[in-house]
From TrEMBL, chain A:
Pfam families: ABC_tran
Source organism per UniProt: Chelatococcus albus
Keywords: ATP-binding, Nucleotide-binding, Transport
Family affiliation: Belongs to the ABC transporter superfamily.
PANTHER family, alphabetized: AMINO ACID IMPORT ATP-BINDING PROTEIN, PHOSPHONATES IMPORT ATP-BINDING PROTEIN PHNC
Source taxon at top rank: Bacteria
Organismal lineage: Bacteria, Pseudomonadati, Pseudomonadota, Alphaproteobacteria, Hyphomicrobiales
Protein name from the UniProt record: ATP-binding cassette domain-containing protein
Length: 245, 234
């Protein structure tokens, strides 16, 4: 069977997630299309990380469903192989920075070893981590670890990349490097879905905004419109820096 | 007190003289316990890690059983292996009873649950931390087992040492299946038991000191190797 060019678009269909009697995500519906950088905004605890984890297939929804473009249900494993995620707190393996990337490439079936090493070095290079290639990943600084996680995700050339606050721990220069990397990944044809609390970053990167509040999706709006004229009072208050949710 | 002084002197004399019988005993003790721990590690590390990741009915019962087996009395383990290997037992045809092989088997029975149970706990905790990331990268549970064992390696060294300590210290199991035959199945602990019962406390204590020193050296080497590795790998 011929693999489709992309697993996108992703149809999120009435997605709900309930845990411990609390409805953490409430009937979220949206369509994520290729080519657009989607930024998810919302206050702490809105359910942004949860939504990313559900979309990535790490959690099973308690209500609703996901539909990936051409793929029907039951292809979960194959669909996830064409995605990557950079977590809010990335977990790196207790081996060198380089080996963290070659490990991931091996799982995606990249052969032979020499090709994995070459691709991993290129990925480190792109994020300015080449001098740290042989360092144990766990002794890298928080910001370096986050960039390494991004380099690892990038090396997988996924159809979709989910990023959960990728610049939360970074200094301004490293943040700019990550933003440039996200731009480059986008330009290379990967769909970007990210969360951030940095509104300046959202303005710079977003094509469209998903605004989540209290587990409900209040807006899916083109970025220009959202920042200029949000449709909901909650989003307007959020943009003014008021406490919402 | 006096006994203790004599014992120290005896221990020193035994070591300094390079007593051939003592050397045999030391070599056999080390050989049996190290072999048993090696085999128990090969079985117990993947077993513990697999139980940590597996989700099946009755998993809790398996965890409780393995944890309980950590406290298995050595004599009972010995008795169990004795019944297996004795002439009329299912493996009797191999004539293994009262050989070092039988002692290895008994210690494997004793040590495997310790290594499996402690590994299960450590890998359980690590899996909680790694699950999302490994699943995201595309590692199935089967692929995650060796990854988790490797990433827990520094903690697992302590687990293997706990198993080795248990093996080197026990007397019940190897006494039952080995028989404490001089020059064949006599180890440090069985010799200590024998000399004590014969009333030669000095020789018994002397052997005890040799045993303790050996265990101390092994643990010191492992500890400092671990410290160095931790410093290098974070
Ligand atoms: N597996 C879970 N079980 C129970 N509650 C959960 C689970 N995952 C998340 N939650 C809860 O769901 C809510 C949303 O969490 P989530 O991590 O998605 O927030 P967020 O929007 O990413 O917030 P932040 O901006 O602080 O990262 C929180 O109240 C959290 O405590
Ligand atoms: Mg979050």
């Amino acid at each position: 069977m011929h693999a489709p060019a992309s697993i996108l678009p992703l149809h999120i269909d009435g997605l709900s997630f309930e845990a411990g009697g609390a409805l953490l995500l409430d009937n979220v519906s949206a369509t994520l299309r290729p080519g657009l950088r989607t930024v998810i905004l919302g206050p702490n605890g809105a359910g942004k990380s949860l939504l990313l984890r559900l979309c990535h297939g790490l959690l099973a929804p308690t209500g609703g469903a996901l539909r990936w473009g051409a793929f029907c249900n039951g292809d979960e494993e194959r669909v996830r192989r064409r995605q990557a995620m950079v977590f809010q707190r990335p977990v790196l393996l207790r081996r060198s920075a380089l080996a963290n990337i070659t490990y991931a490439l091996a799982l995606r079936g990249v052969r032979p070893r020499a090709r994995r090493v070459a691709e991993a070095r290129a990925a480190l290079e792109r994020l300015g981590l080449a001098p740290l290639a042989e360092r144990p990943a766990r002794v890298l600084s928080g910001g370096e670890q986050q960039r390494l996680a991004l380099a690892r995700a990038w090396a997988l050339s996924p159809d979709v990349l989910f990023l959960d606050e990728p610049t939360a721990n970074l200094d301004p220069a490293a943040s700019r490097a990550v933003e440039a990397a996200v731009e480059a990944i986008h330009a290379a044809g990967t769909k970007i879905v990210m969360t951030t609390h940095d509104l300046g970053q959202a303005r710079r990167l977003a094509d469209e905004i998903l605004f989540l509040c209290g587990g409900r999706l209040l807006e899916q709006t083109p970025a220009a419109t959202f920042f200029h004229a949000p449709r909901t009072p909650e989003a307007a208050a959020f943009l003014r820096g008021e406490l919402v949710g | 007190m006096n006994d203790f002084d004599t014992a120290l002197a005896t221990a020193w004399r035994l070591i300094a003289a390079g007593d051939a019988a003592l050397m045999d005993i030391v070599v056999l003790s080390l050989g049996v316990s190290l072999t048993a721990v090696l085999i128990a590690s090969i079985l117990g590390l993947p077993l513990g890690a697999t139980i940590a990741l597996a989700r099946f009915r009755g998993r809790d019962a398996v965890v409780v059983a393995i944890n309980a087996l950590m406290g298995l009395p050595p004599v009972v383990a010995g008795l169990f292996v004795y019944l297996l290997l004795s002439r009329s037992g299912p493996l009797g045809a191999y004539g293994l009873l009262f050989t070092p092989t039988a002692m290895v088997v008994a210690q494997v029975v004793l040590v495997t649950p310790i290594i499996a149970a402690l590994t299960r706990q450590i890998v359980d905790d690590l899996w909680r931390e790694y699950r999302d990331e490994l699943t995201s990268l595309g590692a199935g549970k089967l692929r995650a087992v060796p990854t988790l064992i490797w990433d827990a390696r520094l903690s697992l060294v302590t687990v293997v040492l706990a198993g080795l300590g248990r093996a080197m210290a026990e007397v019940g199991a190897i006494l039952v299946v080995g028989g404490n035959i001089a020059g064949v199945t006599r180890t440090m602990t069985t010799a200590i038991a024998l000399e004590t019962s014969k009333g030669d406390l000095a020789l018994a204590l002397g052997l005890g000191i040799v045993l303790l020193t050996l265990v101390l050296v092994i643990n010191a080497v492992a500890h400092f190797a671990g410290v160095a590795a931790r410093r290098a790998a974070g």
